[in-house]
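Just scan my protein:

——
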Amino acid sequence: MIFRFKKRDVHKRAFSLVEVSAALIILALVSSGVIMVIDRCAASGANSILRMQAFEVARENMEKLLTNDSLKETVDYGESELYPSIKWETTVETFYEPITARMWVQGICVARFEDTEGQEQTVELSHWLTDVSKDQLLKMMNDQDPEQDLLAGQLIEAVEEAALYAGVEVETIEQWIDNGMLVTDDGFFVKGNLDIYVRSNGEPTPEQQQQQVSSRAEIMAQQEKMDDIRSMGEQEGLDEIDPKTGLTYRELEQMDFTEIWDLMKSRQQ
């Protein structure tokens, strides 16, 4: 028996250009979606790490406040030594709580950082540290910076305000400066110097010109001499007048907490 095999040509069919292009597009879309998800996960993880570091910095600063034996109103800020990308700010402030009519000291610890998108993020911790008694409130009034209060009453910034104080025109103030009237290094007008030129009609004698001051230290020294003169002959005790409030110490002792708080607010306005 003879077997005869017939040869048959088999041609393999390849993908067309359209099919290859469609496959590549689908692969690109899937790949980009996967990459985007991975990128978002990485950014979220990085932001979470930064937020935990910022929380750690704020918590450490709050712990320092809680362990302090004494506190005063202040604002401190800087950069973390452990995490240089974290900037922190610590604030100790007083506030009045009207429901209980009491004053409290509050600590606020803030840590800031930039996320992966360059946006500033903030972590803030606050805590009521302690309440303030009436005696402590009176002490706070007396401990306020007397130098700043004094300088605020002796210096004038704008030439228009200086002219209004002296009761003259702005051009007259400029003439007085040309005629030797001194101002501070940062350009503030000293009321005492203006008074000298007002009394002398803009033509002070050499002795009067020597009485001028041009620095904050000289203003403080001059005022201390005046305070020493005023303090001579004053009676000590509860009938003495408190220079910050204009009231006697007896009157302050008789005031309740709310009245003292209102007095402090009126002085700050």
Notes: Residues 19-132 form a domain with the Pantoate--beta-alanine Ligase; Chain: A,domain 2 fold (CATH 3.30.1300). Residues 232-236 have pLDDT under 50 and may be disordered. The chain has ten helices and six strands. Strands lie at 74-79, 87-97, 102-114, 120-132, 155-156, 189-190.
